[in-house]
Amino acid sequence: MLASRTTALAHSAAISAARQPRNSSFSTTAASLHGIQRLGVVGAGQMGLGIALVAARTAKVDVLLADNSEAQLAKGLKFAETLLAKEVQKGKLSQEDADAARSRLKSVKGIEAFGDVDIAIEAVSESLPLKEKIFASLADTLPAGAILASNTSSISLSKIAAACGPERASHCVGFHFFNPVPVMKLVELIPALQTSPEVLARARAFAEAMGKTVTVSQDTPGFVSNRLLMPFINEAIIALETGVASKEDIDTTLKLGMGHPMGPLTLADFIGLDTCLSIMEVLQRETGDTKYRPSVLLGRMVSAGWLGKKSGKGFYEY
Ligand SMILES: NC(=O)c1ccc[n+]([C@@H]2O[C@H](COP(=O)([O-])OP(=O)(O)OC[C@H]3O[C@@H](n4cnc5c(N)ncnc54)[C@H](O)[C@@H]3O)[C@@H](O)[C@H]2O)c1
């Protein structure tokens, strides 16, 4: 294992050494570990935007951001500017570093613009057919040797890798960030059955260059994080729908009694109720275990378009 990791790192050092830096502020130390100078992000929603921002600010790589909604792209870049300005105001970032980070972020029309990225991270909605379509396009567009990563919360990476075709599958990996990306310190890496050790080592180095701590999970439904978190959130919603307590009392019990930074219903609103429902459906379908049955109320709220913070209404109003 150690030998293959060393070989992998030596290989990526060779890749980066063979390239001229496209970005003058790009660190050659970082390059020698992950070999990444340019990132493409698909999906400029709450996760994609956070990933793009942290990559530009902390890993100091150029970022191309694509979304099929122009309004979402414009909103995302404006939000990135607001977050950078806040960091400058708080004295966490110099104006010069904020300007440099902003200049590394560029919106593009679509995946067609990813012809020279070293890694693409997909962060579109949690739907297997949608992700399969996107990974087939990424496999057609990205240069040889580029990493194809997904921020999926629950979908099988081995399925996503299969959508890339046999030649690309070894370069596909799960790159699971947490919300909000600029704040949460973890990246959970999920190798598909097909992922090569070299790609996993480069993904780890890139996540670390973004300032994150890495854990690794097998490709099982929900991985470690959502196999534990989502049934807990779902049970809180079932407690609400069966009248065990009010939403405020459920959240306050977990906050003040268990020291959670936010209650499970507030957390569900932050994650997005559509995402929560999709994850429960994956857990239920792929394990066949009835303990993962999604709450009826959760399904009804998604049908009503009450998706949580991102739509302005979930268990609470925003
Ligand atoms: N929300 C969370 O807490 C969280 C945490 C970890 C992982 N994730 C995962 O991250 C992914 C994105 O979640 P999110 O919360 O950012 O969702 P979101 O709804 O905020 O954003 C999804 C974005 O994808 C875009 N999109 C949809 N189809 C597209 C296409 N064909 N091409 C380009 N863009 C397209 C949408 O316009 C939208 O901007 C999901 O897989 C989710 O499971 C979410």
Notable characteristics:
6PGD_dom2, 318 residues, oxidoreductase, 2 domains, alpha/beta, globular, 3-OHacyl-CoA_DH_CS, 3-hydroxyacyl-CoA dehydrogenase, disordered N terminus, N-(1-d-carboxylethyl)-l-norvaline Dehydrogenase, domain 2, single chain, 8 strands, NAD+ binding, binds nicotinamide-adenine-dinucleotide, Rossmann fold
Summarize the structure.
It is built from 13 helices and eight strands.
Give the fraction of residues assigned to helices: 40-55%
CATH class type of the largest domain: Alpha Beta
Distance between the termini: 48 Å
Strand percentage lies at 5-15%
**Count of DSSP-assigned helices:** 13
Give, in order, the helices and strands. Answer: HHEHEHHEEHEHEEHEHHHHH
The gross shape turns out to be globular
Give start-end ranges of low-pLDDT stretches: 1-21
| Structure ligands | nicotinamide-adenine-dinucleotide
Largest sheet properties: 8 strands, mixed
Instruction: Name the CATH superfamily classification of the largest domain.
Output: NAD(P)-binding Rossmann-like Domain
Strand line-up across the major sheet:
3-2-1-4-5-6-7-8
Structure classification: alpha/beta
CATH topology of the largest domain, by name, is: Rossmann fold
Return Rg in Å: 20 Å
**Roughly what is the average pLDDT, rounded to an integer?**
91
Q: Which architecture of the largest domain does the CATH hierarchy give at level 2?
A: 3-Layer(aba) Sandwich
Number of domains: 2
GO molecular function, one term: oxidoreductase activity, acting on the CH-OH group of donors, NAD or NADP as acceptor
Domain 3-hydroxyacyl-CoA dehydrogenase NAD binding: 39-219
Pfam families: 3HCDH, 3HCDH_N
Pathway: Lipid metabolism; fatty acid beta-oxidation
